[in-house]
Amino acid sequence: MTLQRVGMIDLTEGADASKPIEQLGGSLQYREFLQTIDAASAAASTASSQGLTVTGIAIGDIPLFCMPAEGLTAGVVFVPLGPALAANLLQIRVVNPTIAAVDAASVAVRIGVLRPL
Hints:
The chain has strands at residues 3-5, 22-24, 28-37, 46-53, 62-68, 77-86, 89-96, 107-116. By secondary structure, it is an all-beta fold. The strands form two sheets. The chain has a five-stranded antiparallel sheet, with no helix packed on it. Strands 4-7-6 form a three-stranded antiparallel sheet, with no helix packed on it.
């Protein structure tokens, strides 16, 4: 499978994310989205799931990662749960593996997905 670059997208929040960044072997597209997450407080050593509205996510998109765009939020890990089961909606798990409660501030995250063609 060869990787072919077919264009770039603007990763500012709310930007048109309909253009693929890269096309993989003609059957998959790799796309990235930028979205703000305002996760609820997480008790020590817990994980909780929540829905995240991401404009441009399509049913069947397979999330690869969900990471802060600028630095890490101490003690909080965002894990995408996929594939997307509804348009513009991605399920994520907010994990606090530390021994103390964490109140995650609002954070911009990059979300990478594979889209079957």
